[in-house]
Predict the structure of glutaredoxin-dependent peroxiredoxin.
Amino acid sequence: MHPSRTSTETTSLNPSLSPASARERESFLVGVTAPFSPGCTRFVKRLKSAREKTAEVIACFAVSDVFVMRAWGEILAVGERVMMLCDGLGELTRALGVSLNGAVKACLGLGVRSRRFCLASFNGVITNVDFDEESDFFPVIVH
């Protein structure tokens, strides 16, 4: 994905996370390493309370396909609260500088993945980025 393009929401094949949707509100963009993995599932479940507290928009993405992200969202019962997005080729992941090479752990055979992180923005301006240190697969920095 080119940095000027957007991910595709899993409920349709049309781009839905545009710069306009992030304006005039607090938003969170969350990257996860592997949908359905125990650590990433816990990470997304914690997002539900964040939405209730302050965020108007929460989007979760992974280097995966639209069908996996849709199924994972259904199992997690995130409904409309969390947009489940895919970054099929890992272009957004690389553009954000959060890519990991899952092939390092040969037994997993994951290839390029996103580090687990949460990016907060207000009115379209990034205000904070935190990385999850409890990675299932990789050593990741900071809280």
